[in-house]
Design a protein that fits this description.
The chain is of the alpha+beta class. 40% of the residues lie in helices and 21% in strands. It has 21 helices and 24 strands. It has a six-stranded mixed beta sheet with strand order 16-20-21-19-18-17. The protein has a five-stranded mixed beta sheet with strand order 8-10-11-13-12. It has a five-stranded mixed beta sheet with strand order 22-14-15-24-23. Strand 23 and strand 24 form a beta hairpin. It is flat. The two termini are 39 Å apart.
């Protein structure tokens, strides 16, 4: 991600928010089969805002495309057409969203925004024209400048009332009177003052957007503050007295007022019609205007925003008003704050566990240390909560995948979301998107059957994919279920045999192990390469991404009934509770979340299996034993297991026992990555990182999932 000017950064952030909102609104409307009035207004406002802000950033291709799509929803909002092809309009919105997202991504990466939206605009204009014709309206009328027809006396005749709705009164399927443009002999002159909502932020940008829109309706207009983006006092002036504008237009007063009332974040509008420009408080003479334009030509079109002066303390809200309770914070600032909290945790351990204090009776120090630990825990919880976001935003992005694949594959399916409010670390939401996308695509392509196949099997023609999330202890559990055809064990085993993936007798493989082969690189059961599958690329990304988050993934399936994929990920990755183990003279740390219990084995409880591996019976099941001393080549470790400690660990659904000399206690650990030059050894050793202990020593962190793969490979 490139470094940006503050204005560019705000544009990228706000535009992405609007584009995500547009996509979800369009998909929801298509699912309902109609556009509700509130959704039409929301889509119109979002496109309208993108149009203005993109024009301000000189991104003309985005601005023009947003204007073209906005016109469709302006027509729907104003004339309530009967015949509405919701699916076709959704296609137009989603295509526009994809283009805009691509251009914003280029801008964010510091690349040239060189995409062309000309073809999309042409198709959009053609669609709107036919849309109007289909509904009996004149396609050549500019609705933004159209006024009600005038009577002979000059008074406006009210539009014919709409017919009463027949099926869905809340939907835009109501016919209305057709508007014709008013023939006016001259231009009207208006004065307006716009007051933006308190704490909306970027007031100068909002005002600049109004001026950009004004070019569509007015041949000449003037405003105060004048040079909005260059005047360091512009923000304070707009906040104190409002943004004042004087303009000429052929629109009547009602239409001009309505035009200004469309402004985003508008709190109040003062509006009046003037007899001539002579009554305008500010209207430069032609000679003055020439000087102003010459000075503007000598400055950049979009200068970087001036450094703002500290704002005065906000006034106390009046009775019944609510002050803003939300602010936006850069993620890298939260990352830095989390790093500092991590260093604070280490510093606390180094103070309270300092070897110089060993054996000393320090009652007051111990009391202060306990208070410090309590405050540090509260600070840590507070900082972590700042980073927690609902997973619903990531879930909703899967709607688009299901929608596109149903259309392209000729299938019928719906996506059901559960536990959208479940909160996870921001970094997790950023990394979980790709795995979820691949699993949902796999469910659509391989799982959900064609309608005729489902009907023949006694199923509803429409399949269901369910995304669910819930918190379990220190983990978030995400399940992806489909009611499709399920997996064929024999077909997967055949492919695994061809790929040389089998490492033991076929009968020894459990169903879950067989289904797990779908995550192997290059594995695919499709014989033909399609847009969505057949290349053996994708599902291996799921495992690598999940494991990079310290998580695990498992698949279960019943042929003919469906498939369930379960993902488990730690809620946070930065600071975890760990058990410190001693093995000989070395110390290792194991995350508490994976430890089920610890015990000292009895004589004869540990035995050798037929292949010479140490095993132990625990709670009626046989678990492999892994001696850390032998794995890491530690010579002075305890050799008699009856004098050692066994820890029952479970990872990836597989239990095993780790043998250590002693448990030194639980402490919060800050995970530090291992050096790059030994990172390749982590898969062979089960080590995932390191941490600093209270005495300043270094402890390697054992990764339960990687260790399980060492044992069960």
């Amino acid at each position: 991600m490139a470094e940006h000017e503050p204005m560019v950064e705000v544009f990228i952030y706000e535009t992405r928010q609007f584009l995500e909102q547009l996509e979800q609104l369009a998909l929801a409307s298509e699912s309902e089969g109609s556009f509700a009035p509130d959704d039409v207004n929301e889509i119109f406002r979002a496109m309208h805002t993108i149009k203005g802000s993109a024009a301000m950033m000189m991104l003309e291709e985005i601005s023009k495309l947003a204007h073209a799509v906005e016109d469709i929803f302006f027509y729907i909002r104003e004339l309530h057409p009967k015949i509405v092809d919701v699916s076709a309009i959704t296609d137009i919105v989603l295509t526009a969203v994809d283009f805009m997202n691509g251009e914003v991504d280029k801008l964010d990466a510091g690349e040239a925004t060189d995409g062309s939206s000309a073809d999309m605009r042409e198709r959009t204009h053609a669609f709107l024209r036919q849309f109007k014709i289909d509904n009996g309206d004149d396609p050549d009328v500019d609705l933004r400048k159209a006024k009600p027809q005038q009577t002979a006396a000059g008074a406006a005749t009210p539009a014919a009332p709409p017919e009463p709705p027949k099926e869905k009164p809340q939907q835009y399927f109501i016919p209305a009177a057709k508007l014709e443009p008013e023939q006016v002999g001259g231009l009207h002159v208006y004065a307006a003052t716009l007051h933006f909502e308190a704490d909306c932020g970027m007031e100068e940008v909002r005002a600049f957007g109004v001026l950009n829109r004004m070019k569509d309706i007015s041949p000449e207009f003037h405003s105060l503050p004048e040079k909005i983006l260059e005047d360091p006092q512009a923000v304070d002036t707009i906040k104190d007295v409002g943004f004042r504008i004087w303009f000429q237009t052929d629109m009547n007063a009602d239409a001009a007022r309505a035009f200004l009332e469309e402004t985003i974040f508008l709190d109040k509008l003062e509006f009046q019609e003037l007899a001539s420009t002579a009554e305008c408080e500010y209207w430069p003479a032609p000679q003055q205007q020439a000087v102003i334009e010459a000075s503007e030509a000598a400055t950049p079109v979009v200068p970087p925003p001036p450094e703002r002066k500290p704002r005065p303390a906000p006034k106390r809200a009046a009775s019944g008003e609510h002050e803003s309770q939300m602010i936006s914070v850069r993620v890298d600032k939260l990352d830095r704050l989390m790093d500092l909290v991590g260093e604070l945790v280490i510093a606390e351990s180094m103070v309270t566990q300092n070897p110089d204090l060993a054996g000393l009776e320090l009652a007051n120090f111990s009391k202060a240390a306990r208070q410090l630990h309590k405050l540090n825990e509260e600070l840590q919880d507070g900082v972590m909560s700042l980073r927690m976001v609902p997973i619903g935003g990531t879930f909703k992005k899967m709607n688009r995948i299901v929608r596109d694949m149903t259309k392209n594959l000729g299938k019928k399916a719906r996506l059901v979301l559960e536990g959208e409010e479940t909160e996870v670390d921001k970094n997790i939401t950023e990394h979980i998107g790709d795995p979820l996308m691949h699993i949902v695509r796999n469910s659509m392509d391989h799982g959900i059957e064609l309608p005729e196949e489902r009907k023949a099997a006694g199923k509803p023609e429409q399949g269901t994919i369910t995304l669910a999330a819930q918190n379990e202890g220190g983990e978030v559990v995400i399940t992806i279920r489909d009611d499709g055809g399920g997996m064929n064990r024999e077909k997967i085993m055949e492919k695994a045999r061809e790929k040389g993936l089998l490492t033991k007798p076929e009968d020894d493989y459990t169903d879950q192990e067989v289904f797990g082969f779908i995550f192997a690189p290059g594995f695919s059961t499709n014989d033909e390469v399609t847009e969505y599958s057949g290349r053996g690329v994708g599902m291996d990304v799921v495992v690598s991404n999940i494991r990079s988050l310290g998580g695990s993934v498992a698949v279960d399936s019943v042929e003919g009934q469906g498939t369930v994929t379960t993902i488990r990920i730690p809620l946070t990755l930065a600071i975890v509770d760990g058990m410190v183990l001693s093995v000989g003279g070395a110390r290792y740390t194991l995350p508490i979340r994976s430890i089920r219990r610890s015990f000292r084995p009895a004589e004869g409880q540990v035995f050798l299996d037929a292949e010479g591996h140490e095993m132990c019976m625990d709670a009626g099941r046989c678990c492999p034993v892994l001696r850390l001393a032998r794995l890491y080549g530690i010579e002075d470790a305890q050799d008699d297991l009856t004098q050692a400690i066994l820890l029952l660990v479970e990872a990836d659904g597989k239990p095993f026992l780790l043998a250590a000399d002693e448990l030194l206690g639980v402490q919060q650990i800050v995970v530090k990555p291992v050096p790059t030059y030994i990172r390749g050894m982590t898969e062979r050793t089960g080590i995932t990182g390191c941490t600093l202990l209270g005495d300043g020593g270094i402890s390697l962190i054992i990764d339960p999932e990687k260790t399980a793969r060492l044992i069960y490979a």
